[in-house]
Write a structure and sequence with these properties.
Number of strands: 29
CATH topology of the largest domain: TIM Barrel
Strand content: 15-25%
CATH superfamily of the largest domain: Glycosidases
Structural class: alpha/beta
Largest sheet: 8 strands, parallel
Number of domains: 4
CATH architecture of the largest domain: Alpha-Beta Barrel
Shape: globular
CATH class of the largest domain: Alpha Beta
């Protein structure tokens, strides 16, 4: 990859509207632009390398104009396949360079990181423009009527403000604090004041655990959460405020108390027995990671497809229709669904669910969890975006990580993340993000942490959570705030992080970040560059990162430093109008940041851990 930082700007392309069409259909002629900085001179030649039916072809690009020190080149490509791959080949400085979604290389590279155009149905605009607030119902809020729901027989009753969460141990999945859906409805003011406009609820089905990923049925809402009526009331109240609501569905497994599984156990000849993977003698069965309470679903069963997806009252369909009217689903462990050994029905299941969801509500969102390198399973054909940690959360933890020992680093045997420089953060981020189309990058869920991870406040340096939040709200992707982040809550693993919200005891607030989160959400909502714009990395070395998100109408420059540091933005990276605006006050800031020009570059300096976000004029391009 080309060295970073470079002595001058680098040739650039991304999938944003400055460089590529917003939407394409099969057979369309797509006009694709790449810009080359003036310091490179006029590149001798540029070709668009595109892949058609598996075979590459090369089309010469032509110069279409010059703006603000950039020479813009354009080439055309016929969209032959649903996922159309391309890169640019540049002849300059006596050699050849390949430009793909991972960066600029003076060598040949694999097709994996090629840019992508897709012709699949578009995701709803509200998804990419939204801010998601994740609610774990048992720990979010108890409504005034929650006392009428006694603890179930499986539970360990726990006091909201006085019983510590047991992060590891036999009581971990059984501690019952009694949060309910009416409690969520009663706190909609709080959610809206944070700037969130999408609520993501972890499962609401009856189960025998506090996390409810072991559903005993998909046909009703857990009475402990208030039953069906409580979900209807919550969604109606949220919709009245313009807030969307996503549910959480386990397509990979049910609980061992599920009505289907109980019937399957009782009668090996039943239709339900085919919904699971039993041994020949029917004594053992496959389960998620060997956890007996989570028997794995067998998607070769036509009966399962019907009852989980296709029927009007199926698990997928029932909750998207009135009176419940959910706005979409997050599919739990989507990467494992339909996969067992030599059997791989993952794409078939994804297609089945996606077609059904879009049939019921074309404006619904469909997200799926994939904790590893998610890109191979996320073309845009099925899932609109991934809940993944590989391309954002994991490298961010490594860059902003503090001295916390023995936090769960995403299931690895490591005691915690490596501490790396900004250049390694960037290399990892680009490596793991480059396999997505631009649309998918804008629609992936970006989370500092979640109900399945340690809390950022535990993992990161002092003040690092807010620096990470700046990155979360400004990088491509949909920001995800796990309830309690705004109060700086801590936790060393996913279970330990599921702390009841400190509504009643302000002493449990670790750090009040509500105003900062609200300001970042408002900034993102008000700037198209942060929801639609492309991205250019201006600096990434050691303790400092700088990048710009840009459209023709506006741009946003982001600087983050984990310690005293300086980012040198090369001359020519920004227009004169943008440089002038950079001298003004940032739209959002953390700590002390200054800007100075000299030595052929613009330096952004921090005397301590700090961040700043400036709103700048847009990026000029040659006329179409």
């Amino acid at each position: 990859m080309a060295p970073f930082p470079a002595h001058c700007p680098l040739p650039h392309h991304d999938g944003s509207p400055l460089h590529a069409p917003r939407r394409t259909e099969l057979g369309d002629t797509a006009r694709l632009r790449v810009r080359v900085p003036g310091a490179w001179g006029r590149a001798a030649r540029i070709w668009l390398r595109s892949v058609h039916d598996g075979e590459p072809r090369y089309d010469a690009a032509r110069i279409v104009g010059e703006c603000d020190g950039w020479t813009w080149w354009e080439a055309e490509m016929t969209v032959t396949n649903p996922v159309a791959r391309y890169r640019f080949l540049l002849e300059a400085d006596g050699g050849y360079w390949s430009l793909n979604a991972q960066g600029l290389f003076r060598r040949d590279v694999s097709d994996y990181a090629d840019f992508r155009l897709t012709s699949f149905p578009a995701a709803p605009q509200w998804l990419r423009r939204g801010t998601i607030y994740q609610v774990f119902p048992d720990r979010f809020a108890r409504s005034a009527g929650a006392g009428s729901h006694p603890a179930p027989d499986w539970a360990v009753p726990s006091d909201w403000d006085h019983t510590a969460v047991e992060g590891t141990g036999p009581a971990t999945p059984l501690q019952f604090y009694g949060g309910d859906l009416a409690g969520v409805a009663e706190r909609l003011d709080h959610i809206q004041e944070l700037g969130a406009d999408v609520i993501y609820l972890t499962p609401f089905f009856p189960a025998r655990s506090n996390h409810r990923y072991d559903a005993s049925t998909f046909t009703t809402v857990d009475p402990l959460l208030g039953g069906d009526g409580a979900l209807v009331a919550l969604v109606e109240a949220a919709h009245a405020r313009g807030i969307k609501v996503l549910g959480d569905l386990t397509a990979n497994h049910s609980g061992d108390a599920h009505e289907w599984f109980r019937q399957a156990l009782a009668d090996p000849k039943s239709e339900e027995a085919g919904y699971y993977y039993f041994s020949a003698d029917h004594r053992t069965y496959e389960s998620w990671y060997g956890v007996a309470s989570l028997p794995k679903l067998n998607w070769s069963s036509e009966g399962l497809k019907r009852r989980f997806v296709l029927d009007d009252d199926s698990a997928v369909a029932r909750w998207l229709r009135p009176p419940f009217s959910l706005d979409g689903w997050r599919i739990d462990v989507g990467n494992m669904t339909g996969r067992l050994g030599a059997t791989d029905l993952n794409r078939e299941v994804a297609r089945l669910i996606a077609e059904r969801v879009r049939e019921i509500n074309p404006g619904a969102a469909l997200l799926a969890e994939a904790t590893n390198d998610a890109a191979p399973d996320f073309t845009g054909e099925h899932w609109h975006g991934a809940m993944t940690y590989a391309n954002f959360t994991r490298p961010l933890w490594s860059w902003l990580g503090g001295d916390a020992a023995h936090v769960n680093f995403f299931g690895t045997p490591l005691a915690g993340p490596n501490r790396v420089g900004a250049e390694d953060f960037l290399a990892t981020h680009l490596d793991l993000a480059s396999g997505f189309s631009w649309d998918l990058r804008l629609q992936n869920m970006n989370a500092l942490n979640s109900h399945d991870t340690a809390r950022a406040a535990t993992v990161m340096i002092d003040g690092g959570q807010l620096l990470g939040a700046v990155m979360m709200f400004t990088l491509p992707g949909v920001p995800v705030v796990f309830a309690g982040d705004e109060f700086g809550l801590k936790g060393s693993n996913g279970e330990d992080s599921r702390t009841p919200m400190p509504w009643n005891d302000s002493r449990r607030i670790e750090k009040d970040l509500r105003a900062s989160y609200a300001a970042l959400a408002a900034l993102r909502r008000g700037q198209a560059a942060l929801t639609e714009g492309g991205i250019r990395w201006l600096y990434a070395e050691g303790d400092a990162i700088a990048f710009i998100r840009e459209t023709a109408g506006s741009a946003v420059l982001v600087f983050v430093a984990r310690a005293a540091a300086r980012a040198d933005v090369a001359a020519g990276s920004l227009s004169q109008a943008q440089l002038a605006a950079l001298a003004g006050q940032p739209a959002f800031g953390v700590g002390s940041v200054s800007v100075a020009a000299g030595n052929g570059c613009t330096s952004i300096r921090a005397g301590e851990a700090a961040a700043a976000v400036w709103v700048l004029p847009g990026t000029d391009t040659p006329a179409v």
